[in-house]
Amino acid sequence: MSIDAYLNKTRKEYQQGELDERSVLACPFSQFRAWFDEAMTHADGEPNACALATVGADLRPTVRMLLLKAFDERGFVFFTNYSSRKAEQLAQNPHGALLFYWNALERQVRLEGSVEPVTIEESEAYFESRPLAARIAASVSRQSEPAPSRAVMEEAFATCSAMSQGMPVKRPAHWGGYRLVPARFEFWQGRENRLHDRIIYKQENGLWSIERLWP
Fold first, then answer.
1. What is the 3-state secondary structure (H, E, C) of 105-159?
2. Is 85 one of the annotated active-site residues of the chain?
3. 63: part of which helix (H) or strand (E)?
4. pLDDT in tens, 104-158
5. Which residue among 18, 36, 96, 168 is least packed, with the fewest CB closer than 10 Å?
6. pLDDT (tens digit, 9 = 90+) per residue, 71-106?
């Protein structure tokens, strides 16, 4: 069987729900909250997992999975190493896109907007909430840099663990959060015959407009 034939056998019809521009909530953040709460109840894995796309000075897009850690009407927050590739690209071009996909609900949400650092206080509060091992890993990681071997990484972790000896591990200056401030939302609900529902919110003069897109 060729790869194409195999992929064709994976085709499915989407029948879990529908989405109508006349019944969605007027605020996209409220609509996201409603869908996210459903995903927390019904979706598999980690419903806060999402893909972040960024574009640096070379205009070549990159994308990676990460975990959303907070959201409200100010935006959507994630944390990383400020020396990572994503952080380097955000310094060159402070815009990004997030994609959430909840397979069990046959839904996607796409967000596009500007990206800004969160406050030091927000980064400190989240870092202190992390398990000790995760704080140590963030402290020793030279994210996105070449690593000579797995053994070198584990040695750095073990050394830091031994030095901490139960003492609090402080947030390193190279680690913290970003907030994506959306200017556009797209809510996608899978439908039969590939006539999917796509409802977008666009911000214009401080107000949100709502419209349907062809699938």
1. HCEEEEEEEEEEECCHHHHHHHHHHCCHHHHHHHHHCCCCCCCCCHHHHHHHHHH
2. no
3. strand 61-67
4. 999 999 999 999 999 999 999 999 999 999 999 999 888 888 899 999 999 998 8
5. 168
6. 999 999 999 999 999 999 999 999 999 999 999 999
Domain extents in the chain:
14-128+173-213
Active-site residue, from 150, 194, 198, 212: 194
Query: Which neighbouring-strand residues pair with 187?
Result: 109, 199
Q: What CATH topology corresponds to 14-128+173-213? A: Pnp Oxidase; Chain A (2.30.110)
Q: Record the pTM.
A: 0.90
Closest CA to 28 of 87, 110, 98, 106: 110
Can you give the C-alpha Rg of the chain in angstroms? Answer: 20
